[in-house]
Design brief:
The complex is a heterodimer of chains A (112) and B (110). With 112 residues, chain A is mainly β. In chain A, 0% of the residues lie in helices and 56% in strands. Chain B contains no helices and 11 strands. The radius of gyration of chain B is 13 Å and the shape is globular. The chains are: A mainly beta (112), B mainly beta (110).
């Protein structure tokens, strides 16, 4: 069974803290994604990676960075968390460009 | 105008009812289309792809109308377990060009 695992389901951080969200997939997928989901806005792409050490900005990359040192792992970093980054963060992977996305269970981040 | 628009609902229907959702998209270059299902506090999961000729999977039928730029999802004989948010997803060319609608909430009532 396919599996995308996100390291933390719930986090509470303070403004200015550095936040790491980790995502691991066991399907040997080439593509990995970080989205955030907010009510009324749908899922918005933060960053996308199509290979190890390769990344592309999505629609809302400001305030975020990513790291993909190994094929199975894709990390999202908030260098200095702000209250407007309070959101649900979803990691996903896919084998093909137009293929099915497999999502992790999400990480709900609250920044105080 | 949003790139992908859905009626947020909620749609509250009795068990056994037929319900249909529409989703409109603004980019005429859109190439592929999907419906994802998201249960409360869970991750989205692919429900079905939408093909030009329309496609059916059990009680679910998806259709694409390129001329009017919308896709639809029809659910027949609704079950309680169909209660979820249905996300319309449109792809304009590559993996990073997936655009998600904000979802339509369905509640099937006993």
């Amino acid at each position: 069974d396919v599996k995308v695992t996100q390291s933390s389901r719930y986090l509470v951080k303070r403004t200015g803290e550095k936040v790491f969200l980790e995502c691991v997939q066991d399907m040997d997928h080439e593509n990995m994604f970080w989205y955030r989901q907010d009510p009324g806005l749908g899922l918005r792409l933060i960053y996308f990676s199509y290979d190890v050490k390769m990344k592309e900005k999505g629609d809302i990359p400001e305030g975020y960075s990513v790291s993909r040192e190994k094929k199975e792992r894709f990390s999202l970093i908030l260098e200095s968390a702000s209250t407007n980054q309070t959101s649900m963060y979803l990691c996903a992977s896919s084998q093909r460009e137009e293929g099915e996305l497999f999502f992790g269970e999400g990480s709900r981040l609250t920044v105080l | 105008r949003k790139e992908v628009e859905q009626d947020p609902g909620p749609f509250n229907v009795p068990e056994g009812a037929t319900v249909a959702f529409n989703c409109t998209y603004s980019n005429s270059a859109s190439q592929s289309f999907f419906w994802y299902r998201q249960d409360c506090r869970k991750e989205p999961k692919l429900l079905m792809s939408v093909y030009s000729s329309g496609n059916e999977d059990g009680r679910f039928t998806a259709q694409l109308n390129r001329a009017s730029q919308y896709i639809s999802l029809l659910i027949r004989d609704s079950k309680l377990s169909d209660s979820a948010t249905y996300l319309c997803v449109v792809n304009t060319g590559s993996a990073r060009q997936l655009t998600f609608g904000s979802g339509t909430q369905l509640t099937v009532l006993p």
